[in-house]
Structure formats: C-alpha cells, structure tokens
Amino acid sequence: MEAGRQGTRTRAAGTPASGSRPLPRAYRTALHLRTCAGRLAELSRFFHWLADQGLTSSLAQVDARCCEAYLAHRRYVLDEHGTVVGSQSPAVRRAAALVPIDLVNYRELFTADRPSDALGPWKGATASAVAEMPNGRDENKTQPVEDSVLQPVLAAALYLLSALGPHAVTLAEDIREADRIGVRYARKASSRPNHQGLDGQRSAGACLS
C-alpha cells in the first residue's frame, strides 16, 4: 500500500511511461490549487480508512464492496461516540466517490502498486451520480418567491424606475456639471496672485524697518 502511495506521488503528475496506454478519462483541464488540495486530503483520508480496515498490503485489495463501504462511511456525520447525528452534503459524498474513481482512471501511471484491472467502481457511473447531487434540471435550489410577496415588490420597483428614474438621471448630470465647474474655479483661484498677502508682507516689513 505504501508503495502504491509513492507511485501515486511520483507518477500521477507525469505522463504515461513509454508503451503504456493513453488515459481516456484523465482530466483535460487543469484544476485549481484548492481543488487539488481537497482531492489530496480526501485521498489521504481514504488511505487512513483502508488502514483501519486492515487493507494495507496492496491497492489490489480495493474492490467494489470496499468503495461502497467508504462512501457509506463518508455519507454520515458521526459524534465522538460514533452515533449518526446528520448527513454529509452531496459535495462531500462526491469527493469520497472520486477517490476510487480517480485511482482507477490513473492506474496506468502506477508502477509499484495499482488497483485491480477488474475494479470498476459503481459500474462506471460518475461521482456526481453516485453522490446523488442535484442537477438543477427539476427545480432551483432556492425556492421561488410567492406572488403575494413578489408582485408588490415589482410594482414598487417599476414605479420608482418610471417616476423617479428620469429625475435621478437629471440630478446626477447636474452634480457632475457642478463638480466640473468647481474644479475649474478652484484651478483659476489657485493660479491668481495673492495681492492681499503681498501687501500684508510689505506692511509688516515696513513696520520692522
């Protein structure tokens, strides 16, 4: 098993060795670093779970029942006594299902140890399907607002847009024009010589003399 982990680290990021078959299910798009960190954390969790089950000699020991058991292990939230207190989100279940699926998809890269060629987790189903993730085709995740609430809000918004909108546009233009005039006036004032200040300096000099 340890050899399999080393093979994962050394070859998974590279290309297949000469003479090996291409990887039809390999990722063609680079993943974000946070996604990679999450995948690595789930893979480490899977290996620790295998060790707790006594499956430490080879990745070939992983079979379909093992994949189902790990998914069941990650499906629920347990307290410190091992009692089920809730269910994990579909995203967590998907991450758990991805571990054996990715191991199978990339097993051609493993040199020292690899999953069995007969292993096909969940008969080739996607991780999203295994995790029962909602696809959004049936209905939105957020329920629609009732008409009794939506209609008054839309009516008020339309009134503000039609009644106050033109005045707001005119007011915004007036404010921008006032700002432009103020800037021009400030520039002219700063460029004028300060005669009063010069006269005051002359008077002070005369008194000192």
| Helix content estimate | 55-70%
Q: Total strand count, please?
A: 2
Question: How many helical stretches?
Answer: 7
Mean pLDDT: 79
Structural class: mainly alpha
Region (Disordered): 1-22, 186-209
Question: What can you see in these coordinates?
Answer:
The protein has 209 residues and is mainly alpha-helical. The chain has two domains: 2-130, no CATH class; 147-191. The chain is built from seven helices and two strands; from the N terminus they run H-H-H-E-E-H-H-H-H. The protein has helices spanning 2-11, 33-52, 64-75, 90-105, 127-130, 147-191, 195-208; strands at residues 76-78, 84-87. The chain has a two-stranded antiparallel sheet. Strand 1 (76-78) and strand 2 (84-87) form a beta hairpin. The termini are far apart. Residues 1-22, 186-209 are annotated as: Disordered.
Brief overview:
By secondary structure, this protein is mostly helical. The protein is 58% helix and 3% strand.
Set down the secondary structure blueprint.
Layout: H1 2-11, H2 33-52, H3 64-75, E1 76-78, E2 84-87, H4 90-105, H5 127-130, H6 147-191, H7 195-208
Antiparallel strand pairs: 1-2
Helix pairs in contact: 2-4, 3-4
Quick tags:
mainly alpha; two-stranded antiparallel sheet; 209 residues
